[in-house]
Amino acid sequence: MSLFLIVALLLIGVLVPIYTERFGRKINTFATMLAPGIAFAYIISLIDNIFAGEHIIEYLQWIPSVGLTLSLHLDGLALMFALLILGIGLLVIFYANYYLSDKEDAGRFYAYLILFMTAMLSIVLSNNVLQMWMAWEVTSISSFLLISFWGHKSESRKGARMALTVTGAGGLALLAGLLLIGDIVGSYELSVILGSGETIINHALYPVVLTLVLLGAFTKSAQFPFHFWLPHAMAAPTPVSAYLHSATMVKAGIFLMARFYPVLAGTEMWFLIVTTAGLMTLLLGAYVALFKHDLKGLLAYSTISHLGLITLLLGLDTRLAAVAALFHIMNHAVFKASLFMAAGIIDHESGSRDMRKLNGLWQFMPYTATLAMVAAASMAGVPLFNGFLSKEMFLAETLHQHAFGFLSWMIPVLATLAGVFSVAYSLRFIHDVFFNGEPVDLPKTPHEPPRFMKLPIEVLVVICILVGLFPVMMIGDFLAVASKAVLRTTDLPYYSLSIWHGFNLPLMMSGIAILGGIIVYAYRSKLYRFQSQFMQTDAKLIFEGVVQTVISRLSQAHERFDTGSLQRYVAAMLVFTIALIGLPLFEFDVGFEPVNMQDVSGIEISLGVIMCLSAIATMIFHRQRLVALIAISVVGLVLSIAFARFSAPDLALTQLAVEVATVILLMLALFFLPKKTASESAPSRVVRDLGIAAAFGGLVATINYIFITQPLASISEFYLANSKTGGGGTNAVNVILVDFRGLDTLGEILVLGIAALGIFKMLARIRLAMPSSDEKGRPWSTDRYPPIVSMVSQALLPLALLVSFYIFLRGHNMPGGGFIAGLITAVAMIQQYIAHGVEWIKPRVKVDYQNLIGLGVLIAAFTGVASWGFGYPFMTTWFDYFDIPFIGEIELASALVFDLGVYLTVVGATLMILAHLGKLSTPERPKVEA
Amino acid sequence: MLNIAVIFVGVILCIALILNLIRLFLGPNTADRILALDTMYINSIALILVYGMHSETPLYFEAALLIAMLGFVSSVAFSKYLLRGDIIE
């Protein structure tokens, strides 16, 4: 098996719960546990390799041409996290089996949970930082889904939104940071990056990189000042809180800091930022936790505080501090997950989480109470439990550092103070809930939970005790390999995991913390009274307020640009283009060579004059829309004659077909415009618009002139020389379209199809008022379909189809091709719509234009794919000559099939747009008087 | 001889096109303008065919064919617009 299989297995595991839900809750749960179970067993089987100092790295080619490789690795740090993620994940799934009520959608819940597990595991296993970032974002999203699992509750939705916003924003900062790192190091492979710490630290952009990466880490790990989302994430079901928001996801930020410890840590800036943030978070979390009446609220702030503790340890400038940080990551995950599960049981079996109501539960659930007490003692740092050991290491490390210069003595003092509060809130968790009198009007009578609901807690609590009693045996090796990975060394600094170090300062600090905690708890009512003088601030309200303000500001700014005025859009676009194209022209002066002009005849000059005059007339008549349309048709007509004259017959054909389709389209749109003439523009506007238009026209003319006069090496020669030999066609234009640049054409017809579908969708809901008379107020004629037009049009259709077929077939060698043929067919069909109406066409043409577009794109794509079947690259064309009796030699080319795809797409898209615009005006529409 | 005739016809067609254009600008009715455009299509067909004869190639005849067909469609569409406003009912 390989690491990739693990991730793939878990991804498949996301679907398992959805499909096994129908077999009942039990089977569902066990089926869900299958994939993580196998993954867990596999990782366990690798433990020996890692302990032996191995560093497993696996690669999978993804897009080798742009240097993207998927790579996974497993080292000591990844091993530690992988076991935490999978192990606690399994327990949480098992626990959720009992926690979720029968009515709840457990399949969906498990699917989200496994999705999260996959993402989280991918973070720790990724050897490529971009890949790691992807997984990072998926954890944010799956966390959002899990917090909002009870979507009917407003607080769930708001909490989920807040968590997603904060962690998502941090994720973007992280992406920027990782891209910078990749740029500095020249690789996104973690194994390379971790070896180039010197390069990064000495780089000028190091402060930026550090800030961005730490932003990502702090938001994810709820460090001050981004800690506020975590308490609101407690709106999630308790298994989620136990898993994501205490044991794993919030540790992702810590993991990130540990992962990049070898390359980013060790500088003044790192110590200062990380230590300060950690210390603030540690104190704030511990202090606020004491005042939370909600069980989960208390645990949430306690989690924040412990995350701060770990961050602080990573910020301290001793190598042992990093070891202590890793140790505490494991311990915290174990005891906090069990505490959350205990809180979930209490909530589940008594109906409340309010510690003012929950009292004296010892008599109802002594067994759960015992488990919770052990876990809470571990959290408080009581000797003989695992929490005590890492806390001792932490306190010892606070004594040996100098990050704050002469003020460094503050760190151990403040750490002890945080310890005092930590003991106090742990005590409150136990004493308030299980003792302290009788319960106060609980919704139901508390009782012990089902037997196996306690199993996950038992497992975790046993680990707490075993680690507390036999630390070296239990986790000595794990800690050692993880520390080696973080510190990137093979010989670790000396540390002792024994429980007893003699009477020393850290032990004294622990003692002070425990005594102080008891005293603080005893006098808590005074503290509550003091605290109640402060205004209660709800982060949710503030956050929502900020979000609303930002949204309204941005939409104001947006409205300033997006005014709905077409004139303004066009003006902005043209001015921008002028700036973009015009500015480089200033620096580009090679002098104009005198060129040999072609002889110009009187006919050409007069046609040119006609075109110019029509263009000007279009502008003069622009307030009489139909006349302007007629005038611009003349421009199109003369243009196509010009194309024919100057040896571009393909363009001439295309121009003609497009011209008619466009005119019809404009007429369809014009019909719905208000009939009244728009008011005259102000003189200043006329000048402005004239200026922009003149500048743009001048620019285009200049560019044309440059192209005509400069001797340019053109690619045309290549196409002309190779179109017959390489593509089998003598019409180079068509061969370019369907062969040389076939991929472009495929993309273009795809875009055309998408545009047509978009227009279809936009028109589907539109309701337009239909004018009942023309501009002069004359009513419309009652003769809807004049018979002469109908008859002639009907006769025209077969002829037009024949022409279209002819143009299509000969396209490869002579002017023509699928695009022009498609337009001709479409226009011929539109003619039938005009002459007979939609109602007449409907029963006669039973073609769904959407399907036509889809079919066209599929045929074109299939022709491209088919060349794979013959062992050639995508879009290789094939042609050969055949001798058919009576007809003679003909050429068959695979490009013709491709062209068929183009043809179908063009027909479908054009008809879809025009016919649907036409359908807007059914008689049921409201009418307005002109 | 044919060459001279061809050039002569080309010049005549050009004059016709210019006259059409004048009618198109002057109007006075929209129907006049549509008719002027339609006549321009026909004159263009002739011009292209004459040009094809002049340069002795049939390459441009498809363009003439298309103008004949599509010009008709466009004239019908304009007329339908005058008649009903809504060209596809």
Automatic annotation (TrEMBL), chain A:
One biological process term in Gene Ontology: monoatomic ion transport
Domain named MrpA C-terminal/MbhE: residues: 685-772
Chief place where the protein resides: membrane
UniProt-annotated location(s): Cell membrane; Membrane
Ranges for domain NADH-Ubiquinone oxidoreductase (complex I) chain 5 N-terminal: 62-110
Domain of life: Bacteria
Keywords, sorted A to Z: Antiport, Cell membrane, Ion transport, Membrane, Transmembrane, Transmembrane helix, Transport
Domain Na+/H+ antiporter MnhB subunit-related protein: start-end pairs: 788-911
Gene Ontology MF: a single term: antiporter activity
Protein name per its UniProtKB record: Monovalent cation/H+ antiporter subunit A
Organism: Opacimonas viscosa
TrEMBL record, chain B:
GO molecular function: sodium:proton antiporter activity
A GO term from the CC aspect: plasma membrane
Keyword Transmembrane helix: yes
Chief site of localization: membrane
Protein location: Cell membrane
UniProt-recorded name of the protein: K+/H+ antiporter subunit F
Family listed: Belongs to the CPA3 antiporters (TC 2.A.63) subunit F family.
Keyword vocabulary terms for this entry: Antiport, Cell membrane, Ion transport, Membrane, Transmembrane, Transmembrane helix, Transport
Record-annotated membrane-spanning stretches: 6-26, 33-53, 59-83
Membrane topology summary: Multi-pass membrane protein
rRNA processing in keyword set: no
NCBIfam families cross-referenced by the UniProt entry: PRK06161.1
PANTHER family (UniProt xref): NA(+)/H(+) ANTIPORTER SUBUNIT F1 (PTHR34702), NA(+)_H(+) ANTIPORTER SUBUNIT F (PTHR34702:SF1)
